[in-house]
Amino acid sequence: ISYVLSITHCLVFTMAAQCMTKVELTVSCENLLDMDIGSKSDPLCVLLMNSSGSQWFEVARTERVQNCLSPKFAKKFVVDYYFELVQKLMFRIYDIDNKTVDLSDDDFLGELECTLGQIVSSQKLTRPLVLKNKKPAGKGTITISAEEIKDNRVVNFEVEARKLDNKDFFGKSDPYLEFYKQTETAWQLAHRTEVVKNNLNPTWRPFQIPLQSLCGGDMDKPIKVSGLCYDYDNDGSHDLIGIFETNMTRLLQASRASPAEFECVNSKKKQKKKNYKNSGVVSVKVCQVVRRYTFLDYIMGGCQINFTVGVDFTGSNGDPRSPDSLHYISPQGINEYLAAIWAVGMVIQDYDSDKMFPAFGFGAQIPPTWQVKTQRRGIEGIVEAYRICLPQVKLYGPTNFSPIINHVARFAAQATQQKTASQYFVLLIITDGVITDLDQTRSAIVSASKLPMSIIIVGVGGADFSAMEFLDGDDGRLRAPSGEPATRDIVQFVPFRKFQNAPREALAQCVLAELPQQVVSYFSLLKLQPPRDPNPS
Ligand SMILES: *[C@@H]1O[C@H](CO)[C@@H](O)[C@H](O)[C@H]1NC(C)=O
Ligand SMILES: *[C@@H]1O[C@H](CO)[C@@H](O)[C@H](O)[C@H]1NC(C)=O
Ligand SMILES: *[C@@H]1O[C@H](CO)[C@@H](O)[C@H](O)[C@H]1NC(C)=O
Ligand SMILES: *[C@@H]1O[C@H](CO)[C@@H](O)[C@H](O)[C@H]1NC(C)=O
Questions:
Q1: Do the domain assignments include residue 9?
Q2: CATH, residue 254
Q3: Where is the signal peptide (predicted)?
């Protein structure tokens, strides 16, 4: 049953991640090769993608810039961004000499292959262009800058009303407000406040409306506000108290000392009654536009993701030389440990600036200060270190998670001394699941939940993972043995076997889908800003 649960859970998050955000890419080049005799090249840039894993296909192309070796393309590329995928991109520059759509008859000036993750994590990426044979394309370079398309401003409101018309024969009305945005076709509901019971002079709880849903960012766009009263014995048609129209320009003049006040008008009543004035007054005491940062804001604003791997070298995995062992490397050079490191690391490595991933083994019998050295960086370095170390260690025990969690937590705690969102730590633990220090691990996780840190546990083999499911606090909050609850959910557990026959990217998608949300929730809880402006103009 727990497996079924975690499958749905994964699907939910994969779906939620589907429309994460759109990114706009702006391209410019310097020192392009000159192919035209008597004039300069007329470059154009084509963007190709290969996210489905089959072939490169063209997504879009820019305009052609005439007679220019350092073009700045005006047309921007808009692409969907998914944190949990490795999204490969290819930028190709051509010198366009005639009007044919086919580029194969035009001169090729160079290309760059990279990932979207590399672009967003460096915000502005400049690289040399290469020719088809991978040799440099002269001194040509390409610069790609990324900007998230969004309006992440929200409006904080504090609103009250007075002298609202009574709509209730037996007591006082139960009023609430609805805010509408004007669209081409109709008024679109943007927000509904809570119902204040039995009160004609209500004060609503402070609320927040995304600026985008209130007025699409246009401060002069009309906003309609309806004062309604909740009808309990109802057919769904709540009674209208009155309506007013305004806009953000007017609302922003509100202050506690001088609230923005609006008369609620009920047009039916107005027609009937001769000396009708209004059906009450709505008073806006606070209306402030504030910015809410997204995951990409943190990444583009310089937040680094520090990735650490912990590999379970305990005896329960079986002797690595025996094909039954979870550490046995098949003649094809793989096992579940390597596959898990590879899948998750491929995504994360774009966000880690030094690409020096600390990797720890636990549970092996080795001299205390033994280390594996490798020249390789990034995820390949970990894979190599694992291969070097495997024949030399004696798998032993116990399976203690808490030391490695506490180790990473010490660095995460140091990072909190910087008063910006500069670093977030991700610990990937790959284990066969037979944990020996469950209580200490619970305490370690509860402490780590206060730090910029997330833990991903991938369970390999077919053991009983109930202890792991328990650490993944999804169905109820994890508590330390002392009773202290985790401040937020930071553990994501995934059994590897579930993904054995799935596409290669599926494991990474499932384990990483929650990470952007965990990063945002931590930094916004502490009101920490990215180290630099994510969208400098
Ligand atoms: C597309 O990507 C897959 C793996 O993701 C790779 O095997 C394949 O060679 C790529 N295709 C091209 C045309 O580069
Ligand atoms: C377009 O221009 C290229 C390069 O000058 C040339 O080789 C090709 O034949 C031209 N194609 C057409 C259809 O004119
Ligand atoms: C904004 O709303 C106020 C009323 O709240 C109105 O007087 C003003 O004309 C509106 N401005 C625009 C540009 O529509
Ligand atoms: C990343 O975290 C590890 C601890 O797991 C630490 O040893 C390393 O110095 C950190 N890297 C950076 C760049 O802070």
A1: no
A2: 2.60.40.150
A3: 1-16
Task: Answer whether 98 contacts ligand 2 (Cβ < 6 A).
Answer: yes
Q: Which two tokens stand for residue 137?
A: 């394309």
Ligand approaching nearest to the C-alpha of 56: 1
How many domains does the chain divide into?
3
429-481 residue pLDDT tens: 999 888 889 999 999 999 999 999 999 999 998 888 888 888 876 656 788 99
Is 50 a pocket residue for ligand 1 (Cβ < 6 Å)?
yes
Give the whole-angstrom CA distance, residue 125 versus residue 301.
Answer: 14
- How many angstroms separate the CA atoms of 203 and 192, rounded? 14
Position 530 in a domain: no
Residues 409 and 506 in one domain: yes
Per-residue pLDDT of 296-345, as tens digits, reads: 889 989 999 998 999 998 888 888 888 888 988 888 888 889 988 888 88
Residues in Cβ contact with 423 at an 8 Å cutoff, skipping those fewer than 6 apart: 303, 304, 305, 306, 412, 415, 452
Q: Is residue 48 part of a domain?
A: yes
pTM reported for the whole predicted model: 0.65
Q: Establish whether residue 55 lines the binding site of ligand 1, counting it when its CB lies within 6 angstroms of any ligand atom.
A: yes
Are 345 and 426 found together in one domain?
Answer: yes
Report how far ligand 3's centroid is from the alpha carbon of 162 (Å).
22
* Pairing of the two strands 364-365 and 359-362: unpaired
Over the stretch 29-76, which tens digit does the pLDDT of each residue have? 999 998 877 778 889 999 998 866 568 888 888 888 888 899 988 878
CA-CA distance, 81 to 182, in Å (whole number)? Answer: 29
DSSP state of 101: S
